[in-house]
Predict the 3D structure of the following.
Amino acid sequence: MKKLILTFCISIFSCAESDLKLKIVSASDILKQVRTHSQKESVLVNFWATTCAPCIEEIPWILELSDQYHEDLKVYFVSTDWLENKKDVIRFLEKHDIDGISFLKEEGNDFNFINTISEQWSGAMPFTIIYDKEGNVSSYWENIEDRTFFENAIKKALAL
């Protein structure tokens, strides 16, 4: 019985803490983060929400491609959920083994946020924008696309 209790306690307390870092950010914070990769790698930024079925559907494709192109591509996920849903966002990211830095859009002027990210973005979700290694926008699109579309857009950014 002691061994069982000891094993149980060790398993509870030895579980590694997640490497996930969820930062509450403005649009300019996101663009500043993208610029840190200039001259190093391309960047894909995906705007999503826990209540958006198409957003959730395409995240596994993004993760697969992130693994495939990990040496040349950095991926950031930006949740547009309300701050009161932060725990739901964290649970979702952890469930999908998304670690590192992810973002939660600060609440406030959505129109300003959207236009700062891209004047071509209507606010429809999901929204994905890919920057080439020079930090220039290579591709962007609203709504769900399939894995092949994502991969072609990534290849385009990497070729520049």
